[in-house]
Amino acid sequence: xxxxxxxxxxxxxxxxxxxxxxxxxxxxxxxxxxxxxxxxxxxxxxxxxxxxxxxxxxxxxxxxxxxxxxxxxxxxxxxxxxxxxxxxxxxxxxxxxxxxxxxxxxxxxxxxxxxxxxxxxxxxxxxxxxxxxxxxxxxxxxxxxxxxxxxxxxxxxxxxxxxxxxxxxxxxxxxxxxxxxxxxxxxxxxxxxxxxxxxxxxxxxxxxxxxxxxxxxxxxxxxxxxxxxxxxxxxxxxxxxxxxxxxxxxxxxxxxxxxxxxxxxxxxxxxxxxxxxxxxxxxxxxxxxxxxxxxxxxxxxxxxxxxxxxxxxxxxxxxxxxxxxxxxxxxxxxxxxxx
Length: 339
Hints:
Structural class: alpha/beta
């Protein structure tokens, strides 16, 4: 079976996923594209022989679309995801699932009412080989109970449009999701403190930021978010347990020895760092649609949890670094909880 995918949002990430679905992943075809910019939608659709449709609603309703990929502007995500659920069509939504916790819960309730999972959220790190190796080690229990997690998320630069709240909402959200998964534990509080600011930032931006999270079992997480580090795109993660630690491996790179120096290059872009994770993520999603099974990736509940936790981090930043408790609803049994 070839899964016919309709893509809502033909911007940079949408176009990259269209390339992935048409050139990398087998068993899928992009059959429809919609975007607020009709001219761009037509241009992108023409490249892959797809139809350009006027709206996301038209795309969801199309009989030529089996599954929906949402890569549009964040505030439009809830509308398109809810439409796909109402149509009974599987939907892959790039993060965020929605920009408010209330809209995330609307999606959760709609999916529960449908009776089976249709939604996968685009947190690709769960599909990264290094993180999966960490998960395997932690699952054995050989390190004892996790105690502390040290993380860093560094970008070389960000555009002037990037603002301080985006450090949590757009950047740290990836660590928030993958750590909930790695630890199989919920984050219950967030604190954001700001050290000395780098001179390499735009004046309105608080950078770097240090985020401190606590989980329900008492694990403490410290996360450095530094989006103007200059030297490259650098992701670090280390989980310290009672009997040892496990560290995320750096991407493979050749070592060069010359002129009395020994070193290796640092990646400059998140697309290069997680290219294989994106590919694996979409292979798994397409396979689940083709087989008629529920998706194995992050759920609507995971999207809700990430939004609640990033909201708490933003509130802490705005309150000058006070610790903010996450106000999360009990996890329903539908998503593996007890409520």
